[in-house]
Design goal:
The protein is α+β, with helices and mostly antiparallel strands. Helix content is 63%, strand content 16%. A hairpin with a 2-residue loop joins strand 4 and strand 5.
């Protein structure tokens, strides 16, 4: 007969998981950086998942893999040795996009660098699940335990919930960053427009030309010296301000 989750795990764990996920839903709204938000994901997962003594978040980008969040510095060495070797359970979970459970005993032959680093840190079991955003592999969420028999299917189910939270956090941060960059771009464009208009006014007054001719002079200077138009305008205004 099938056994329900409630018979395996106290209901309080499910309540804690629900509360933790609700807290994570608003982390970006509080103005946190991505690193701070993922640190909160890691700490919440460590608190809620029964066998997770420590948690880290691996992010993979064109520059390589790195750990953006960890609940204990000792697990950073485990991650770093995997990145240096280019192989290990966290990287395999990320690239193959499936959860990977590993023990030090099982990993000695397949991932010697990981196994050695794990033994030094007192880690005996490891569970990693991929973080995927819009079908793009982003990294992995990694759990560590000093007990070799750690991490059962319920731990993995809870891990998947926190992977979803991490994915949502990264997606929200990316949207926020795109919006912030757009605002900054518009601000720079407005500032450049104001400087160009001022420079046109200087040329119109100095040479008795109209706005179109003044703008043409700025463009010609920009092309001749391969300099952006706003820089030409700014240099002209600076030279006028320096005059006695």
């Amino acid at each position: 007969m099938a056994v329900s989750i409630d018979e395996h795990v106290p209901a309080v764990l499910l309540d804690e998981a629900s509360e933790a996920l609700e807290e994570l839903a608003g982390v970006l709204a509080e103005g946190q950086t991505l690193r701070e938000a993922l640190q909160q994901v890691a700490e919440s997962a460590s608190r809620v998942i029964p066998d997770a003594e420590n948690v880290s978040v691996t992010v993979v980008d064109p520059g390589g893999a790195s750990t953006l969040a960890a609940t204990d510095e000792k697990v950073l060495a485990i991650d770093a040795d995997q990145y240096a070797a280019g192989d290990g359970p966290c990287l395999e979970a990320a690239t193959r996009q499936r959860p990977i459970r590993a023990t030090v005993a099982d990993g000695r032959d397949k991932w010697p660098e990981f196994a050695a680093a794990a033994e030094r840190a007192g880690v005996r079991a490891y569970l990693s699940a991929p973080i995927v955003v819009a079908d793009e592999m982003i990294g992995s969420l990694n759990l560590y335990s000093s007990e070799e028999r750690a991490f059962d299917p319920f731990d993995e189910a809870l891990l998947r919930l926190f992977v979803t939270a991490a994915s949502t956090t990264i997606t929200g941060f990316r949207r926020y960053e795109r919006s912030r960059q757009l605002v900054e771009h518009l601000q720079r464009a407005l500032e450049s427009r104001a400087e160009i208009d001022q420079a046109k006014g200087v040329l119109m007054a100095a040479h008795g030309v109209d706005a179109e001719e003044a703008f043409g002079q700025l463009v010609a200077e920009s092309q001749q010296h391969n300099t952006k138009l706003r820089e030409v305008a700014r240099n002209l205004l600076d030279s006028v301000r320096r005059r006695p």
